Structure formats: C-alpha cells, structure tokens
Amino acid sequence: MGKASKSARFRSVKIKVVRRCIAGRAKVSYLSQGLPQPSAKQTHPSDPSTSVTPQVESDVAPSSCSETAYSKAKKREIHAWDAVKDDMLKVSFKCSAPITTQCVVCLEDADYRCIECSTTAVFCEACLKRTHRNSLHLPDKWNNAYYEPFSLGLFLYLPEGHSTHAVYMKDMKVIISTGQLCTVTVNMCACEPEACTLLRYGLWPATADKPQTAFSIPLLELFVCLSLECQVSVEGFCNTLRWKNNLTLAEVNALYRALVGESISQFRHYHFRQRSLVDVCPHLDDGTTCPACPKADGDMIVTLNANFGLVRKQSSGTSVVEPFHGTRMFVDEKDVEEYLL
Prior knowledge:
Layout: E1 9-19, E2 27-37, H1 69-94, E3 112-113, E4 122-123, H2 125-131, E5 140-142, E6 147-149, E7 154-156, E8 167-175, E9 181-189, H3 194-200, E10 203-205, E11 213-216, H4 217-229, H5 234-245, H6 249-259, H7 262-276, H8 333-340
Parallel strand pairs: 7-9, 8-11
Antiparallel strand pairs: 1-2, 3-4, 3-5, 5-6, 8-9, 10-11
Helix pairs in contact: 5-6
C-alpha cells in the first residue's frame, strides 16, 4: 500500500480588482482567497493503492469586496430616515387636531382652517370670510372630533371699475388648482365677453361662448408640462384627478369632454403667445427663428420631412382652420408645390 498524500495546504492570495469609470480615477480593491498549494507527489484518483485525505481549509475566511462610498452614503441616508420616520408619523397625527384655538387675525376663538393658506393658522368664521374674498380655497371646520369640509360659498367679485356697468351673477363649475370640482358664483359684466372676465379671475373657459365650466390656469399649465415631458394623456390626467380628489365618474367624464375639445388647444397657443411676447414686441425672437439662416440676403435653409413613406391621401381632407403658428414650423404647402414644379 502506498503512503497517503499529505493534506493540501492553503495559502492566502490577493486578487487585485481595478474598476475604471468614464470620469474620475480608477478604483482599486483587493479580494483575498485561499488557494490550495499543490503537493509534492501527484496521484491519480483512479489508483486504488493510494488514498487521499480530506482537505483542511484554512481558518482565514475570504473577505468580501471593500464597501463603496455610494453604499456607505446610502446606508447613512436610510439610517437617518429610520431615526425620524416614526416621529414624523406622530406629528402628522397631532396636526389632524387644532394646534391652537385662537384666531390668527382677531385672536378670538377659532374653529376653521385653510390648508392652502397655512397648515398651522386657524380662523374664526368672520375673519375666514373676510380674508378669503375672491378666493377659491376650500376651508375645513373642526367638529370636536375631526375636520370636515365647510361650505363657505365661493364668490368671485369684479373690481369697482365695473360697478357702473350691467353686472350679473352666474353659477359655474370650476376645477380649481388642486383638481377639485366646486360650484362658484361669478360676477360677469356686459362690457366684455365672459371668457375675458374669467381670465381676470385666473380661470380658463371650457368654451368661448357662454361657458359653463372653467379651469384654473395653474392646473392647465401643469397638464401642458406633463403632456410635453411625460406624455400624459388627457384621460390619464383626468383619472389622476379622480383618484386624488375622489371625483365621481360623471364628474370625470365631464372633465374629460371639456379638456379633449378645442379649449386645451387654444390654451396651448395662448400660453405660447403669452411667453413669447410676439404680440407685444414683434421684433423679439419667438424661439422658432433659425440662427443659421441669413436674415437679410442669402439662401434660406429648409429642412425636409424625413418620413417619406407616409401616405398622403386626398380623401383624408384638409384642416378646417389655418394652423395656429402659421409658417413658423412648416412651409406653406402651396409654396412647396410651386417650388417642386
């Protein structure tokens, strides 16, 4: 019988790992791993005359890769949030009840609050009505158990310059900046169209003639930005307002019909004209002037539509009205046909 081979010994080997980044210096770390040292006598495993003793591992365990700075910062951030999140939840529960019962205006007893004005201020009924004149805020009232919506009665009054004109009142459905639907009594004047009067109040009408629904302009600006940057559809925006403000299906359908019409297209164009100031200062650049094209003499650079496979059928019809932007974006089709001929 041959002698058994000696047990394999382990030696510690360091493996150098280099991580190269696009920007910055390369990061170097080391991995420690135990590798078996070959014995002096090699035996074939199929030889029955030899026996192999089991290998004894080294006491040194392989160490893991060194922790990165990002993981350390992430752990610190998580620990910081874990330290305060329970306290933040307790504070939110405490804020569900009045912090004080003293009105911030007259220092009398107060039972009302307005979250859109302040999360800590409370009002009495008289001061609430006085400070919320021509406002579309929706206050709450404390009923000794919780805050509930308070029907303040929303009114929008015209300035004193219209007092000598034929002023009349009209109830309208208004979607305010928070996305909530409410009924507002609006003062109208016969000296100007109702759409212009609504614009004075910061509202955009759903229709140009005798509007019954209006939108808060900040809400429409948010929708325009979301549709451009996040490709949010009108239906998706309406459903978002539905889940946020607990709207009924009928209210959401009415909101969708109002937004999907011509109103939102007109608002986009109004928003462009307001930002570019072209109607006020025609010499200003509206953002569509090509910097490479000569402004006096020379050749104009005209780009061609790259979608040459798009089928243009005469049965598709033409636009009912002229484009809002005229020839800012596209050359007139008649000029193109004359050029090609």
